[in-house]
Amino acid sequence: MDLYTFSVKLANALAWPLCLFMIFIILKHPIIALLERLKHLNFKGLNADFINEANSFIEDVPKKLPKPTKPTAEQLWKIKELSKLSPRSAIFSAWIDVKSIVKIAAHKHNLIDAKTNQFNIIHVVSQLEADNRIQKGVVEMFLKLRHLKNDAVHLKEDSINATTAEEVAYIANKLVKSFEEV
Fold it and tell me: Which of 18, 116, 136, 162 sits 20 to 30 Å CA-CA off 37?
């Protein structure tokens, strides 16, 4: 193979990848803006539908949770500030609050493994529901929050807006209040 043939074959092999790379470089900002508005993505087993799930979670609250309770001023400040700084962190923090109160309920009702002092949060919530200590709607909202938290782990920080994170955190606060009564 001479140098000319090699050069032609190399140019043919690199033409499409270079063309796609140049298109991406030229259209980088519009592509990023489009991806930020993307509400659903399904690619090779990765399924992202965060905005719709979060909105459905928010809309279900009046139907599922017993009585609305307002967060304290300190909780309001924490939720607002954390949602502005890092929406994902606001969702994680809200989840940690819910998980902590469920662990307290697990201790209270002897649902923690005595040997290891560990608990399966899904088992605890299911058992509390089976014992009629919490309503089915609370369980459904708990499971949706858990799912949203898991989705948030895999999203970029700017994929979740502060308003959505704030509303999810308020709802988590209502879940905390529901578990406090157990």
Answer: 18
